[in-house]
Amino acid sequence: MDSPLKRAAAAAAAVTLVALSANIPAAQAITPPQVDPGMVPPDGPPRPEQPMRRANSCSTPITVRNPDVAQLAPGFNLLNISKAWQYSTGNGVPVAVIDTGISPNPRLPAVPGGDYIMGEDGLSDCDAHGTIVGSIIAAAPQGVLPMPRPMPSTPAFPPPAGPPPANGAPPPPVEVPPPVAPPPPPPPVTITQVIPPPPPPPRRPRAAVPPPSPTGRRIRRPRTNPRCPRSRRARPTGWWESPRTRRSSRFASPPGLLSPSIPHRVTPTRTRR
């Protein structure tokens, strides 16, 4: 039987659990954390993690003697740049080109940045790829290329009406619909299949029955007991028991004489009556 002390401890534990469950607040949205930019350490200069060196020679760009400046670039018509300029031209917006570097020229002024490979300022392009990408973005036009129009006074996409959302304010509660009850299980289906019994195994063929003798009696082979020495030896039949006696061709004896010391073979015959 349990002691009164154990009963009192169990009752106290039950009361504690009920009190803890009553103090648990209802589920609500978590306030996003506030990030202080002053606590972030400053960025260091771009540099490689370990010393590196250039293994291949730089590519040398070539220029066309008489370029057709009246011809627009293929990407100008493909991207429909003239219609995109009516929303924004990007004039005065700095763009960071993360590529092989940029070689500045009069039509493409560049601001020094950094180099994570060689540790330089990024104003040298060994592959010419970064210079081409930077020229597509911010190179000044020349010749008859259309100049971008100034930005409109009113933005193409006005800001939404109403006060701006306050930082740290919890979002309004959203009514979550109750979960949909699962459909009832389908009724069981019973499948009955009748399988015929397997065929019986084939019977072993019986031994061939020897043909009947001319006298109508069945000829049986004499059974010999291998353990009995007498049954192993066949008793020769005398010449007096059969009208015909066949002797061995190797050892011949006079007719009417039969010596037991001379090996011979006697074949008994049966005379029909």
UniProtKB/TrEMBL annotation:
Q: Which UniProt keywords apply?
A: Hydrolase, Signal
Q: Name one GO biological process term.
A: proteolysis
Gene3D superfamilies annotated for this entry?
Answer: Peptidase S8/S53 domain
Task: State whether keyword Signal applies.
Answer: yes
Cite the record's Pro residues compositional bias ranges.
39-49, 147-214
For region Disordered, the annotated ranges are 30-56, 145-273
Record GO terms (molecular function) = serine-type endopeptidase activity
Q: Which InterPro entries match?
A: Peptidase_S8/S53_dom_sf (IPR036852), Peptidase_S8_Asp-AS (IPR023827)
Q: Which family does it belong to?
A: Belongs to the peptidase S8 family.
Question: What is the name of the protein in this document?
Answer: Peptidase S8/S53 domain-containing protein
Lineage of origin? Bacteria, Bacillati, Actinomycetota, Actinomycetes, Mycobacteriales
